[in-house]
UniProtKB/TrEMBL annotation:
<dbReference type="GO" id="GO:0003677">
    <property type="term" value="F:DNA binding"/>
</dbReference>
<keyword id="KW-0805">Transcription regulation</keyword>
<keyword id="KW-0804">Transcription</keyword>
<feature type="domain" description="IclR-ED">
    <location>
        <begin position="87"/>
        <end position="271"/>
    </location>
</feature>
<dbReference type="Pfam" id="PF09339">
    <property type="entry name" value="HTH_IclR"/>
</dbReference>
<dbReference type="GO" id="GO:0003700">
    <property type="term" value="F:DNA-binding transcription factor activity"/>
</dbReference>
<protein>
    <submittedName>
        <fullName>DNA-binding IclR family transcriptional regulator</fullName>
    </submittedName>
</protein>
<dbReference type="InterPro" id="IPR029016">
    <property type="entry name" value="GAF-like_dom_sf"/>
</dbReference>
<keyword id="KW-0238">DNA-binding</keyword>
<dbReference type="InterPro" id="IPR050707">
    <property type="entry name" value="HTH_MetabolicPath_Reg"/>
</dbReference>
<dbReference type="GO" id="GO:0045892">
    <property type="term" value="P:negative regulation of DNA-templated transcription"/>
</dbReference>
<dbReference type="InterPro" id="IPR014757">
    <property type="entry name" value="Tscrpt_reg_IclR_C"/>
</dbReference>
<dbReference type="Pfam" id="PF01614">
    <property type="entry name" value="IclR_C"/>
</dbReference>
<feature type="domain" description="HTH iclR-type">
    <location>
        <begin position="24"/>
        <end position="86"/>
    </location>
</feature>
<dbReference type="InterPro" id="IPR036390">
    <property type="entry name" value="WH_DNA-bd_sf"/>
</dbReference>
<dbReference type="InterPro" id="IPR036388">
    <property type="entry name" value="WH-like_DNA-bd_sf"/>
</dbReference>
<dbReference type="InterPro" id="IPR005471">
    <property type="entry name" value="Tscrpt_reg_IclR_N"/>
</dbReference>
Length: 273
């Protein structure tokens, strides 16, 4: 037996069975609107969306307002049109690239490990943490407790700062609003203002160097990995004990190798510098 779902505003009916009574019609309508955007139709007006979907203008207005507030649409006030926002683009690119990210990165990080003798990692950000998804153990132990699956606070690690620095700063402020900043070394940012100032200084850098920033006996070089949309969706690093390299060599020679590895992974994900 089939039923037709209507919203209270006379919206577009949806053909569904009794087994699908838990479907949320409003969500389906919002996704239908998003699916209407394409390379051939990148901007649409409220009137055009209402015409194409058959939804009442009042319903479309509320859906567009909600999608814009959530970051899935961007409004062009001058033309009175909407286009896909960065959030929906990021969702799509992450879905495509995350399946292969570790597979793509692993041989690059193994080669970086062999070149430098350092332990190398790939991380992604989840909220206020970074999560380690690839680890290639180096030739010399660095007395680090990090392993695959380890979560560390992004604000307190150079590899985490690498990702935060390439986020819109307004998103960083929202993410850390009201956050209690735990400290790990004297270099750890202790409040939002200090973190924002640090990230503003980090943003122009191709890579960041750490000399005992999170773990007092560990040095690190980190660089962002970008996807096809140019979003820094991951980061790589090379770490070693403080006595493994002269600091100048680490920051001049190893830095270039880490940046090259990040660039190679980014290119494999479709990023064009």
């Amino acid at each position: 037996m089939s039923t037709m779902i209507h919203d209270d505003n006379g919206g577009m009916p949806t053909d569904t069975s009794d087994e699908d009574r838990y479907i949320v019609p409003g969500l389906i309508r919002g996704l239908t609107i998003l699916e209407g955007f394409s390379a051939d139709n990148p901007e649409q007006s409220l009137a055009g969306i209402a015409r194409d979907t058959g939804l009442p203008r009042a319903t479309v207005f509320r859906l567009l307002h909600t999608l814009e507030a959530a970051g899935y649409l961007q409004r062009n006030a001058a033309r009175r049109t909407f286009r896909l926002g960065n959030r929906v683009l990021r969702l799509g690119y992450n879905a495509l690239s995350d399946r292969n990210l570790a597979e793509i990165a692993t041989p690059v990080l193994e080669r970086l490990r062999d070149q430098t003798g350092c332990t190398t990692h790939l991380v992604v950000r989840e909220g206020i943490d970074v999560v380690y998804v690839v680890r290639c153990q180096g030739a010399t132990p660095e007395n680090s407790l990090i392993g695959v699956g380890t979560r560390l606070p992004a604000h307190a690690t150079v590899i985490g700062r690498t990702l935060l620095a390439h986020m819109p700063m307004a998103d960083v402020v929202r993410l850390y609003d009201g956050y209690h900043f735990p400290t790990y070394t004297d270099a750890t940012p202790t409040d939002l203002g200090t973190l924002v100032a640090q990230l503003e200084a980090d943003r122009p850098q191709r890579s960041l160097a750490s000399w005992g920033y999170f773990e007092p006996n560990v040095a690190s070089i980190a660089a962002p990995v970008r996807n096809r949309a140019g979003i820094a969706e991951a980061a790589v690093n090379a770490i070693c004990s403080l006595d493994a390299y002269d600091r100048a060599v680490l920051e001049d020679v190893v830095r270039v190798q880490v940046e090259a590895a990040a660039a190679e992974i980014s290119a494999a994900l479709g990023y064009q510098a």
